Every structure is written in structure tokens, then in C-alpha cells.
Amino acid sequence: MLRQLEKLSLEADGRYASAKELEFLKNYLAAAEQRISAYEKIRDAEEKILDQVEQQLRAKSPHIFRKGNHDYSAVCRRDRKHVLRLAAAAMLFADLDALRDGFLLWYRTIIKAFRDEKVAQVTYQVLPQAVNQVLSGEEAPLMQPVMALTQSILGE
């Protein structure tokens, strides 16, 4: 959304924007109230969502956060929290490009460097389900493209 506004501002400099150029803004504004509501619900249920994801991951593999003698559950939770917050912001601003380019591609590199692909694959299959449980039927579709992008990049 913000990138689209910036692009429109540059392209329409000195002239009125066309109806076609304004279409994305109309679409965004039509769903703005739902986006804000969804964002607030995710924000307010963050710990519940993270607890549910962790519980499901541990049910699949009790030692999923262990490497050798080290328990990395706190680090993994911090990272899931960061992903959730950035995903919610991407939904709020309708900006998948910023999420993908500014975070997900970088974070995928970190996941691969630490050889956590299997954990990431399971995590980003479970996360959308937990998020959808706190959203209404009208709000969930707004978050779906963000979760799909996150899963496709981090859960390869």
C-alpha cells in the first residue's frame, strides 16, 4: 500500500490520477476497517497464538526445539513472534512486497544457515491455522495471502 502510494505520487506528479490508478486505493480503503480489526485481534492474541503453535509443534515432536544439549525454544518463540508481527503489519498495509523483500528472504537465509528447514516447514504450516482461529470469517482472507507467502518462503 505505502509503496503503491509512493509510486502513484511520483507517477501522477503535476496531474490528476486516473480512475484506474486510484483503484488500489479504493480497494484498500473498502477493507481498511477489517484490516485494522484483524491486526488488533492478532496483536491482542499474540501470546495465545504463539502458545498454540508451540503446543502443536511439541505434539508433533517433543524435542523439536533442541539441538544437542541446547534448548532453543525461547529463541524460536522470539523468531515466531517477529514473523507474526511483521506478517500482521504486511496485512494491515497490504504490502506483501515489503514483507518478502525486507524480511522473509533474509530470514530464509538464516533458517538455512542454521539448518532449521524442517522445523520452519512445520511451523509455517501450523501458524496460519492458529492465526485464523482469532480472526472472523471476513478478516481471515485478508491474512491468507500473507500467510501463504510466509509459508512458501520459509516453509520450503
TrEMBL record:
UniProt xrefs under Pfam families: Phycobilisome
GO cellular component, one term: phycobilisome
GO biological processes: photosynthesis
The keyword Flavoprotein is annotated on this UniProt entry: no
Residue ranges that the Swiss-Prot or TrEMBL entry lists as coiled coil: 22-56
Gene3D superfamilies, A to Z: Phycocyanins
Highest taxon in the source lineage: Bacteria
CDD domains: PBP-like
Keywords recorded for this protein, A-Z: Bile pigment, Chromophore, Coiled coil
Family in the record: Belongs to the phycobiliprotein family.
Name of protein: Allophycocyanin
Protein's organism: Thermosynechococcus sichuanensis E542
